[in-house]
Design a protein that fits this description.
Order of helices and strands of chain A: EHEEEEHEHHEHEEHEEHEEHEHHH
CATH topology of the largest domain in chain A: Rossmann fold
Keywords (chains A, B): Carbohydrate metabolism, NADP
Bound molecules: nicotinamide-adenine-dinucleotide
GO molecular function (chains A, B): oxidoreductase activity
Helix content of chain A: 25-40%
Distance between the termini of chain A: 35 Å
Organism (chains A, B): Limimaricola soesokkakensis
Low-confidence stretches of chain A: none
Number of helices of chain A: 11
Shape of chain A: globular
Pfam family, one (chains A, B): Epimerase
Oligomer: homodimer
InterPro entries (chains A, B): DenD (IPR050005), Epimerase_deHydtase (IPR001509), NAD(P)-bd_dom_sf (IPR036291)
Structural class of chain A: alpha/beta
Chain lengths: ~325, ~325
């Protein structure tokens, strides 16, 4: 089993690589090699099998042909420019999120090996005038260029799979929380930082009110679901390779209560509520009511409660 | 008002051109010029304003820039390779139906004039595990490469419109019947020929049983709806530029009864029912239960009854 992670230097790519190393197998076969590719070569990891870390740009078709030439049994396609970037720089988003994905698919099509391909889409594909709850058969009606590009990727992965060019699976990721690291300029940044910073003994600002609901998943279960996505039998996927990855709808208040249940009353005291109308306007347009029936039926899972998300952060990511 | 029809040499492009010439105006403004572009230059038409007929390939980005350079107020993007072609020749379909559409959109984006753009999608975007009736918020889950490419075009037109690069409207066309001309190799060919040939005094074979249901629209109302689509105010389109063009669900029996009501009992005697399992297998996977609520609310229309479709064929298209 030879595995490639494109976008292997990113947040989820790194976690996925470590988890695959710990597991040692995928789809019932021992892992013989793992290649991590990203725009800059990811730092090497220790593993009991071959690890290669390589720099390569998915917008460069020839580079993709070279990267894929050895032939892989499973490819995780995580490389993307994120939502705010794709909205601010239209051409970057189109080049990476649309043409980059097409480069990978075309390269795989012409190679004719039809590997398992796990593509990460986003709940950002949903929006506009569609009824709640959002089901597996709700139209992607994205209100961002990022969501549009991801929705196009979903369609391409479906068609390339239907034709037998790849054996694709597309997972629409919920917002990941608790995400490690520092706050960034994404509108969703507070959805991790209001938990992460207090657990690290630092102050955090919450720009929305405590009843604001949103749909979350921990990084640990996200990686687990990416692996399960790779392991689903093609025959069980039916007439669409796309599914919403399960998450939980939670209010800010519920998230804070879970933090308090796990870590005691002190962290919550470090959160300051300070309305930010600009952020509130963006995130109040986001959907939070999902029915991920297909993924649940195929064995993917949400966190049992947000207490798990808090525990996973403490176990996996809190700086020591 | 300067208008461009890309695919202007095709079946609907030609009918649309004639209808625009007869109308003389669009969006309340007199038509000053009409350009018909197609892979081979369409034959010139008589008109009380400037008509240009030009050969040009939408897969050629430089040719698109040159075609669009004069600047148009409204562009109808009809050029496409059809379903069976896109399924048999994957690269042709991708080149014309995906990259060709992207060429037009990119050329318009960089021009910065944001014309009205009417894009023709198809009910072939629907399929697979989605519940009936198919609504405006049902996921496009195409089971053909043609449907996939059209669904991608819908997403692109939405995003280019949201960003103000074009003022787009996408109409998903039902199966057009009665289509003039000769039978072709499309699986849907019989849906016109069982009416057209008998009205012309010729025999026709129906490969499915009389209770087979499907969703139809006449060419005349299709063209009318394309024009209404161009005339909708952008503000009335809401958060999606895509809608299902209204049609009627009819069985073969109802179509034949309508023909008899209009043209007497003789034509129906020319239809021979002869099961064709290959065709039946394809068309029985097609959906026929649609709720085109958005388009109806915006003033688009279906034929009042299939008797209209029969009359329009006799008035507009029967060879004399
Ligand atoms: N984290 C989330 O909350 C979330 C939510 C929804 C979807 N996703 C999706 O999951 C995937 C992984 O997300 P992440 O959180 O790890 O993001 P990330 O930004 O940490 O990782 C993405 C990686 O892609 C790489 N990349 C960007 N352009 C590239 C190019 N041209 N060539 C090669 N590599 C390139 C980046 O360098 C980065 O390392 C992405 O596809 C993202 O859209 C993430
Ligand atoms: N007629 C129907 O039942 C139906 C149903 C659903 C959707 N549609 C869509 O409506 C539109 C018009 O359909 P039609 O029935 O008139 O089809 P058509 O085949 O008669 O017309 C399409 C035209 O596009 C032109 N074309 C193809 N490739 C081209 C290229 N590379 N550059 C320039 N022109 C090119 C063809 O030469 C042709 O004249 C198409 O987009 C079609 O997909 C039609």
């Amino acid at each position: 089993m030879n595995i490639l992670i494109i976008g292997g230097g990113g947040f989820l790519g790194q976690k996925l690589a470590r988890r695959l190393i710990a597991r040692g197998e995928l789809r019932g076969r021992q892992i013989a090699g793992l290649t991590l590719a990203d725009i800059a070569a990811p730092a090497p990891l220790d593993a009991p099998f071959d690890i290669a870390c390589t720099a390569c740009d998915i917008t460069d078709r020839a580079a993709m042909d070279a990267l894929l030439a050895p032939g892989f049994d499973a490819v995780f396609l995580l490389a993307a420019v994120v939502s705010s970037h794709a909205e601010a720089e239209f051409e970057d988003g189109m080049n990476v999120n649309l043409h980059g994905v097409l480069n990978v698919l075309e390269s795989l099509r012409l190679q004719g090996r039809a590997p398992v391909l796990v593509f990460t889409s986003s709940l950002a594909v949903f929006g506009g005038e569609v009824p709640d709850p959002i089901r597996d058969w709700t139209i992607p009606n994205p209100q961002t260029s990022y969501g549009t590009q991801k929705a196009i990727g979903e369609l391409l992965v479906n068609d390339y799979s239907r034709r037998g060019f790849v054996d694709g699976r597309t997972l629409r990721l919920p917002t990941i929380s608790v995400r490690p690291g520092r706050p960034n300029r994404a509108a969703s940044s507070f959805m991790s930082s209001i938990i992460r910073e207090p657990l690290n003994g630092e102050e955090a600002v919450c720009p929305v009110d405590p009843e604001f609901p949103h749909y979350y998943l921990s990084p640990r279960l996200c990686v687990e679901n990416l692996i399960r996505g790779a392991e689903i039998e093609a025959a069980d996927l039916g007439q669409s390779r796309t599914m919403t990855m399960p998450g939980r709808t939670l209010t800010i208040r519920q998230m804070i209560e879970a933090m308090t249940a796990v870590a005691g009353p002190e962290p919550a005291k470090l959160i300051r509520f300070e309305d930010d109308p600009a952020i509130r306007d963006i995130v109040s347009g986001w959907r939070f009511d999902y029915d991920p029936a297909k993924a649940l039926a195929l064995g993917l899972e949400a966190d049992a409660s947000f207490e798990e998300n808090v525990r996973y952060y403490l176990e996996d990511d809190r700086p020591t």
